[in-house]
Design a protein that fits this description.
25 helices; 37% helix; five-stranded antiparallel sheet; OB fold (Dihydrolipoamide Acetyltransferase, E2P); D-amino Acid Aminotransferase, Chain A, domain 1
């Protein structure tokens, strides 16, 4: 028990903890300027939960313990909205937006409109009610008049406060609940691994999650929320502009989108629309357009509404993220683990600004469930993924005499048996020496995240594996200049450059080697953790599974996969050959976990690195930041503390500027590195 808890009574300490939690929740979610680390915040919540366990009478409606989800419900009750939750009319291009403004101007007469524009987050609308400052009810949009009471699930969303920063008698606010892209990807990966169909897009995932009967499952899916409207406030002078109402919500601890922007006219709206389109893919949530609203609230009353839509707002949509096209062929790819993945080859179609000619079907169960056949017309979708996916077959357009596709029971590359073990959702080639597996394993080993052997691209690796000169990654270290020089598009100089790169790779950090080995479930983060905690390949190979699992951030699947890898005789032989070749099998001093990381400008900061840095690779910069107590993220968000921007920084720089993130140029980055300690 802390000294602080020893000096005050449980009731006073619980109230103090609630006050601190509310304060720091606003600093994190609303102000985007946290004063304490995530670990320190979690410690406050844990202490409060411990107090509540010891003194159940202290539990209040705003207790953080309610966020983990209560007992499953059998159904949802209906709730009628105080004012209708109307849908928005849509505009799909500049002309339609200007036509909307003309209709609005006719309703307003000679009054000049100004606007506020918000990213149209692709989620589901929610109405949240507070009474005396405490969360009372959360209701879905429903049909606009009546929605479902999903309060138990709403309580699990951390960005929705259980207690406002001051006790307003009565308050109703409206927001958009969504599933961030990283949470969506993790959820679909888990569903596929469990043999369950993946969600088509983050919006469907969010909508399904909010309506789950078991709040504990909702809590595990990491939903998020932005508030966009102050629907009713029981006391005080009502705001006259929408941007004022957003500020009032923020003052109460309610999170609004930091990208919202006031625009004096429709031309400024179109500039915002175009600017946001450029950074759309860098956001950590899906958007499908922008919402344009009158900023002057009294003018909204004059503009009024139709039976379906408010006249004072419109959704200006981006080009569709879905498209239809025809399936030309279904092929099966073999990955480095031997996994067989069905992929459809499509008639090329434009989708979200790019030409798409391939889409994934994930696994055998997905092929069966969707029944995609050659010749079918299919709906494809990009939902934050690099490779589009097939959503469904378009009914009524299937050609006659089409045949159902069946996954092969033999490997399409080496003709070995393709086996599907009980409990698995995928088939795997049984031949560890399969050329496709060898090629993919080598490409993974030489990748930037692995041993970073430049010059060994797909074409060269394909030749090396086809000729049988490289049967595993250790064979790379036996290649000779004459061999390489005789290959297609290679000469003496190119061959020597590749050999030089191979030689340099021997001194790469241990974590790069661990990652490059391609152990299942061991990504970049896990590889660095294993290198820093264990310090050598020998210790990694001999550590029991239960000890691996006990390491911070190493889960049971990763621990089991590591243990299985080193138990295979072929893998032990591979490790011996890599040792003989002279690769680094010990962690360097910088890699090893220090007893305590000294304070630095990066301590407890979330950092994004983009562009080219003179004298350093991004991987080296990332390792330095993490060694100094920082966390390196892949995309810019409201949680980003600083962006290290090199040459050709691109969309991440624009996103950081829009969010007010501190921008660090390469020269300042080097200065900050010099101020460590």
């Amino acid at each position: 028990m802390s000294k602080r808890r020893a000096t005050v009574g449980p009731s006073r300490r619980a109230e103090e903890l609630r006050r601190q939690i509310s304060f720091h929740r606003k600093r994190y979610y609303v102000d985007d300027d946290p004063e304490i680390s995530d670990a320190e915040y979690d410690t406050l919540e844990r202490e409060l939960r411990q107090l509540e366990d010891e003194h159940p009478e202290l539990i209040t409606p705003d207790s953080p313990s309610l966020r983990v989800g209560g007992q499953p419900s059998e159904s949802f009750e209906s709730h009628r909205h105080r004012t209708p939750l109307l849908s928005l009319d849509n505009a799909y291009d500049e002309q339609e937006l200007r036509d909307w403004e003309k209709r609005l101007q006719r309703a307003l007469g000679d009054r000049k409109p100004s606007y506020i524009v918000e990213p149209k987050v692709d989620g589901l609308s929610i109405s949240i009610h507070y009474r005396d400052g405490l969360l009372e009810r959360g209701v879905t949009r429903g049909d606009g008049q009546v929605g479902e009471d999903v309060t138990a699930n709403v309580r699990t969303i951390r960005s929705i406060p259980l207690r406002l920063l001051r006790p307003v008698t009565e308050l109703e606010v409206r927001g958009e609940v969504f599933m961030p892209r990283p949470a969506f990807r993790a959820l679909n990966e888990a569903r596929l691994e469990a043999g369950e169909p993946p969600f088509a897009n983050p919006r469907n995932a969010a909508a399904g999650t909010v309506r789950l009967l078991d709040p504990s499952v909702t809590a595990s899916r990491k939903l998020d929320c932005y508030f966009y409207a102050l629907a009713h406030m029981g006391a005080g002078e009502p705001p006259q502009r929408h941007d004022e109402s957003l500020e009032r919500m923020r003052e109460l601890g309610l999170r609004t989108n930091p990208l919202n922007e006031c625009c004096p006219d429709i031309d400024a709206v179109l500039v915002f629309y175009s600017r946001l389109a450029e950074k759309r893919d860098a956001l950590d949530y899906e958007i499908d357009g922008v919402v344009v609203k009158l900023n002057d609230l009294p003018l909204r009353e004059i503009a009024g509404a139709t039976s379906k839509f408010p006249r004072w707002a419109v959704a200006l949509k981006y080009p569709a993220q879905q498209a239809t096209t025809r399936v030309k062929k279904i092929v099966v790819q073999v990955g480095r683990t031997g996994k067989l993945t069905p992929v459809v080859e499509l008639e090329p179609v434009r989708l979200a600004g790019t030409t798409v000619s391939r889409a994934t079907l994930h696994n055998e169960d997905e092929v069966t469930r969707k029944d995609v056949r050659v010749g079918d017309t299919v709906l494809i979708e990009k939902a934050g993924e690099i490779i589009p996916q097939v959503v469904k077959v378009v009914p009524g357009k299937r050609p006659p005499r089409s045949r159902a596709f069946r996954m092969p029971d033999r490997c399409p590359v080496c003709d070995s048996a393709a086996e599907r073990e009980e409990g698995e959702v995928a088939r795997y080639c049984s031949n560890a020496a399969c050329p496709a597996q060898v090629r993919e394993k080598v490409l993974h080993f030489v990748s930037r995240g692995g041993l970073d052997i430049q010059g060994l691209g797909e074409a060269l690796v394909e030749q090396l594996t086809q000729k049988g000169w490289v049967r595993d990654v250790a064979d790379l270290y036996r290649l000779e200049g004459e061999q390489l020089a005789g290959l297609e598009r290679m000469g003496d100089k190119s061959a020597q450059n590749v050999l030089d790169q191979i030689e340099q790779s021997k001194s790469r950090p241990l974590s790069r080697l661990i990652f490059g080995l391609g152990i299942r479930h061991v990504g970049d983060r896990a590889a660095r953790l294993l290198a820093s905690r264990l310090g050598s390949i020998e210790r990694l190979a001999s550590t029991p599974e239960e000890e691996l699992e006990a390491l911070d951030e190493i889960g049971p699947k990763t621990a089991a996969a590591v243990r299985l890898f080193f138990e295979q005789p072929a893998n032990r032989e591979l490790i011996d050959r890599l040792r003989t070749a002279g690769l680094a099998f010990e962690a360097s001093g910088e890699e090893r976990a220090p007893a305590e990381i000294p304070y630095s400008p990066f301590t407890q900061k979330t950092v994004v690195i983009t562009g080219r840095l003179p004298g350093r690779t991004r991987g080296e910069a990332k390792a330095l930041v993490e060694s100094l107590g920082g966390k390196v993220a892949g995309s810019v968000s409201r949680k980003t503390d600083m962006l290290i921007a090199g040459e050709a920084a691109g969309s991440k720089l624009a996103e950081a500027e829009a969010l007010g993130v501190r921008i660090i140029d390469p020269e300042e980055f080097e200065d900050l590195l010099g101020s460590r300690g």
